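Before the break, one more example. Copy the sequence into your notebook; we will annotate it together after we see the structure.
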Amino acid sequence: MIALMFASVISKAQTTAMDFTKVDCEGRSHHLFSELDSGQVVIMEFVMTCNSCIAAGHAIEAMVMDLQAEFPGRVKWYQIAYTNSYTCATMSGFKNTNGFNSAIFDQGAALVAYYGGFGMPTVAVAAGSGHDVLFTNVGFSISDTTAIGIAARNFFATSKVNDLPATIENVSLYPNPVNDLFSIELNMKSKTNVTINLLDVSGKLIREIANEEASSGSHKINSNLSGIPSGVYTVQILSDGKSINKRITIAH
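Here is what the structure looks like once it is written out:
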């Protein structure tokens, strides 16, 4: 009922996401289009510190955690202030008080206007190198989490993010599960820059394993993962504007 009372009418639904480069309230920089280009689904929830936004946040969080478990390293959840008057102190308090596992941002007024105005909350979901908007709603109901989940799963079902970039012949990771020492072997078709990241299930960067120019031919990259807690992680390999994600298990 509250969501309906505060919802605005979207006169023109956006089909392409609005790009931004923003530093979150924990000091991490995010460039939306770069994250979408790497095959991410980004769920943006524009919030105020009210009971309706808190309840919606918990419903969205449960859905996000299911997606992150199903597609490790490929789903991000942002909670962004609906107005520029909210500071990072306000937004961090909102996150910490309610125990949310999101990336938190202030200064969201321009994005809110782009996606049609503010409901309690407004939600927009973007994905892929086409920077497509998979879902938008000004105002929120619990059933929206089902629609978002379906949209994300449909995207992943048709996405070619896990196809090898044209510059890479093949990739192998071993051992898996890994205790401490871990190796990645790449067979490069041509000379290009390669970035290899270790991500947790939420897509948070845990370690940059490599970022270097690799010539054509075979390459072996070794990494010691002894300081990283046991669990399931994603090795993300970026090359030629494309990425491939491989799941590994660290078991000390």
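Residues 8 and 89 are 28 Å apart (CA to CA). Residues 1-12 have pLDDT under 50 and may be disordered. Try to locate both features in your own notes.
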